[in-house]
Amino acid sequence: MLNFSHQLNQQQKQTQKLAMTQALQQSIQILQYNTDDLLAFLENKTLENPLMELEVTTGEYDEPYVNRQSYQGEDEQNVFANIADNRMSLFEYLIDQIHLNYRDTYLRQLIIFLVEFIDVNGYLSIDLKDAAEKTGSEYIQMLDALTLLQQLDPPGVGARNLQEALMLQIERDEHAPDMAYIVIEEHFETFANKKWKEIASAYKISLEDIQEIYDYIQNLTPNPGAGFGESFEHQIYPDIIVKRENDGLSVLSTKRGQPQIVFQQQYFDQMSQSDDKEVKHYLKEKQAEFEWLQKSVVQRGETILRVGEEIVKRQHAFFTDTNRPLKPLKLKELAETLSVHESTISRAVNGKYLQTDFGVFEMRHFFTTAISQTDSDSDTSANDVQQLLQKIVDGEDKRKPLSDQKILTLLKEEGVAISRRTVAKYRDILGIPSSTNRKRYDN
């Protein structure tokens, strides 16, 4: 006989959890919104709340700006430099990504070849067998090239038909319904013809599950390349202005283009005279919503300003030195300094812009990766290393261009420790060809 001893104990445990209320979720969203998104959000709220009126403050700086990726000296500025140009073709967009992400190999040449056969809607217009024959490559090599092409943006590019375009988009979306990919892959025609009972029976899922997949598919695009090459008016309203003054730098929060909500006091007073309990409850509810929204909008501006001030403090040289050097800076560092979560910093800088006398920059631009130096305890940023690499290449003998290994050696002599692979990566980012393609035969 085995004896089992059962002992029942009653214990009380206290745990602490964060309850993500709807108000808290919307407060987080408001911080994440850029100016246009915030305006759209508040416009919807004013339609639902008669006690709110939306106003957009204008001022002396009401003109469009564009995020500046390159730096110009103050004497080189052009009045047209701040006009946003969104007319990049799909071909140019894909080529830029290829040079950025893939090394200069035979496979990359095949990818570029395929890009020439991407139509305006993002579809591949050449059969892979024909492509292999034209390039003298093997079919499997061309298939590998297409696979890499299909990993580029926009999702779905390089598809050979609508079914594949949808599958590529689903594959890239972590929020896609669980069965979406396999349904489109194995029962595309049946799904499109709404013979859903067959699909439900095959996978033992409900028609409600298939309806969810159908609703999701409606949000995907049948033309992944549509929209490129078109011209859109796109204005950027900076959230922060940095001005250089005699005694240093000043950081200001701009009201330009920022939506504000105003309480309709007169309407509230009129409606408050009603003896209807439902009306009074409604007014109380809408007043509370207004107060919360106003508080959240103000808090958004204060948070962005605090982050902007800390960025300017840590990247002071960028705003004062004409070379625009950037120090290594991580989101986590600012989060610890400002006593907020790292995700708060991320939301405060994404899609937010900082205006200077020499251009407008997205606030995320000022966060750079640190790279260790071999001869000191200090760090240098990836941006600084890229500038140094560019300087080395600019000074090389073009008749005998430096290999990546030689560049690596020269960087080590400067105290920068990175891998050969990183040298190739930075060279691609800078648009610097390989040593073979940089070689010149003229005097």
**Which shape, going by the Cα principal axes?**
flat
Q: Please trace the helix and strand order, writing H or E for each element.
A: HHEHHHHHHHHHEEEHHHHHEEEEHHHH
In percent terms, what proportion of residues is strand? 5-15%
Write down the Rg: 28 Å
Number of helical regions: 20
Distance between the termini: 99 Å
Largest sheet: 4 strands, mixed
Family: Belongs to the sigma-54 factor family.
Domain RNA polymerase sigma factor 54 DNA-binding: 281-440
Pfam families: Sigma54_AID (PF00309), Sigma54_CBD (PF04963), Sigma54_DBD (PF04552)
Protein name: RNA polymerase factor sigma-54
Question: Can you give me a brief rundown of this structure?
Answer:
The protein is an alpha+beta fold and 443 residues long. It has helices at 22-32, 35-48, 90-101, 106-115, 128-135, 139-149, 162-172, 180-186, 188-192, 196-203, 207-217, 265-272, 277-314, 316-320, 331-338, 342-349, 382-394, 404-413, 420-429, 435-438, and strands at residues 52-56, 240-245, 248-253, 259-263, 353-356, 359-362, 370-372, 379-381. Helix content is 48%, strand content 8%.
Overview of the molecule:
With 443 residues, the protein is an alpha+beta fold. Among the domains are: 128 residues, no CATH class; 69 residues, Arc Repressor Mutant, subunit A (Orthogonal Bundle), CATH 1.10.10.60. A hairpin with a 2-residue loop joins strand 5 and strand 6. The chain is flat. The protein starts with 21 loop residues before the first helix and ends in a 5-residue tail after the last helix. About 9% of the residues have low confidence. One of its GO terms (biological process) is DNA-templated transcription initiation. Belongs to the sigma-54 factor family. It holds the Pfam family Sigma54_AID. Keywords: DNA-binding, DNA-directed RNA polymerase, Nucleotidyltransferase, Sigma factor, Transcription, Transcription regulation, Transferase.
